[in-house]
């Protein structure tokens, strides 16, 4: 996922465009939500000034997986270390960056598959064993670290000696030690001594249990492809499903108590900073007496009469073709990763998904976003889910057992 700073720049640009188009405003106060299904999640975390949403959301998802598999009570919920994953991701990416002579995205952003590969290769730690906050901050602030690491590998990739030394990776890891702290070989959690590998196994996490799903027509359906975004630097594969089956997987997962790891575009005007994600139809004409008319005025710019019944802004009805066009035009971009953990409906019966963000306890819903079904249809680039959450007929089509 892209850095938070990039998201903020996109949001500012989008806001200017929206103003020119007179798009309707989206305000939490106008929505009344009722929860339909809510699956247990761990506490809200804050990625702060770091582009590590991919890691925060992935570990939140895996924490819910452990809660479900072990039927844990709240007092026993796990809290996994994000910076353990981030550290190993940086190392692996640096090695690949140098092998490719610098032709690879070397930044804070990454993808969900990265987390699973790090867990497979290196294991997992709880936050208590490795906070990764060795540089004087309570919350992640990684601009300096990112710049230092990038400068280091850029210099190495130029191969100034015409022959790489065998110690450049030790130098790179030395920077990580200084900023994030040295990795412990062993640690104690709840009275038990673990290594990172044994802790992963004790949590019952197997990366092979998870599948990555997308839905685009520039690749054959029911095949796998590497989604073409720069943060997919490991070139991990997605299964490609038609849009109706893509959505069916999400709904089947939630209905059966599984959460979903969501990745997609949040640069839309309907994605607010205070807890709403609505896919606005910016070209829809206001209806007489509607709340939309109240916000943007009538065509002749006369004040709108108060509506007896509130009408929420109209959303775009997403089709497979519209979804593909937005990806091809790059109006759907790889911005952010979050954790989908339930469903809700508004006062008009419109379906929404409960989304755990990684911006701390913030917004109108204390860190949760209500994301409409149309937003999910149109703006999800990919999602990860447990294989057991797949409908049997879809799993068969994909050849997944």
Commentary on this structure:
By secondary structure, the chain is an alpha+beta fold. It has one domain (4-280, 315-398): Alpha-Beta Complex (Cathepsin B, Chain A). The protein contains twelve helices and twelve strands. It has helices at 4-21, 53-70, 82-99, 112-122, 143-157, 168-180, 196-203, 243-255, 291-296, 320-328, 373-379, 392-398, and strands at residues 34-38, 187-189, 192-194, 210-214, 224-226, 237-240, 260-264, 276-277, 336-345, 351-356, 368-372, 380-386. Strands 1, 4, 5, 6, 7, 8, 9, 10, 11 and 12 form a ten-stranded mixed sheet that branches. It is globular, with a radius of gyration of 22 Å. 43% of the residues are buried. Mean pLDDT is 90; it is low at 3-21 and 287-309.
- Radius of gyration, whole Å: 22 Å
Q: Secondary-structure element order, as H and E?
A: HEHHHHHEEHEEEHEEHHEEEHEH
CATH-scheme architecture: Alpha-Beta Complex
* CATH class identity: Alpha Beta
Alpha-beta content class: alpha+beta
């Amino acid at each position: 996922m892209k850095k938070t700073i990039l998201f903020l720049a996109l949001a500012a640009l989008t806001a200017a465009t929206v103003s020119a188009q007179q798009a309707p405003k989206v305000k939490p106060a106008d929505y009344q939500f009722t929860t339909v299904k809510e699956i247990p999640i761990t506490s809200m975390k804050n990625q702060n000034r770091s582009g590590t949403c991919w890691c925060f959301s992935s570990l939140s998802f895996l924490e819910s997986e452990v809660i479900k598999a072990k039927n844990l009570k709240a007092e026993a919920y796990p809290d996994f270390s994000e910076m353990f994953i981030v550290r190993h991701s940086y190392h692996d990416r640096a090695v690949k960056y140098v092998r490719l002579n610098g032709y690879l995205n070397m930044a804070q952003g990454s993808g969900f598959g990265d987390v699973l590969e790090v867990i497979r290769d290196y294991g997992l730690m709880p936050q208590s064993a490795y906070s990764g906050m060795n540089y004087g901050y309570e919350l992640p602030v990684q601009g300096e670290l990112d710049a230092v690491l990038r400068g280091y590998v850029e210099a190495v990739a130029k191969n100034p000696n015409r022959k790489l030394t065998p110690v450049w990776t030790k130098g790179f890891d030395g920077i990580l030690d200084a900023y994030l702290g040295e990795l412990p070989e062993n640690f104690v959690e709840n009275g038990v001594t673990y290594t990172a590998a044994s802790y992963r196994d004790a949590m019952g996490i197997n990366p092979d249990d998870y599948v990555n799903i997308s839905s685009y027509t520039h690749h054959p359906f029911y095949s796998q492809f590497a989604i073409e975004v720069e943060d997919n630097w490991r070139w991990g594969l997605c299964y490609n499903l038609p849009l109706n089956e893509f959505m069916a997987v999400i709904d089947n997962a939630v209905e059966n108590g599984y959460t979903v790891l969501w990745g997609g575009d949040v640069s839309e005007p309907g994605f607010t900073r205070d807890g709403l994600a609505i896919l606005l139809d910016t070209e829809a004409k206001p209806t007489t007496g509607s709340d939309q008319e109240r916000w943007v005025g009538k065509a002749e710019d006369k004040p709108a009469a108060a509506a007896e019944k509130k009408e929420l802004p109209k959303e775009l009805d997403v089709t497979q073709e519209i979804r593909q066009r937005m990806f091809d035009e790059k109006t759907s971009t790889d911005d952010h990763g979050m954790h989908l953990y339930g469903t809700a409906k508004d006062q008009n019966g419109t379906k929404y998904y409960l989304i755990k963000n990684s911006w701390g306890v913030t917004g109108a819903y204390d860190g949760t976003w209500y994301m409409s079904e149309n937003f999910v249809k149109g703006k999800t680039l990919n999602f990860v889910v447990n294989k057991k959450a797949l409908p049997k007929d879809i799993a068969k089509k994909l050849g997944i057992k």
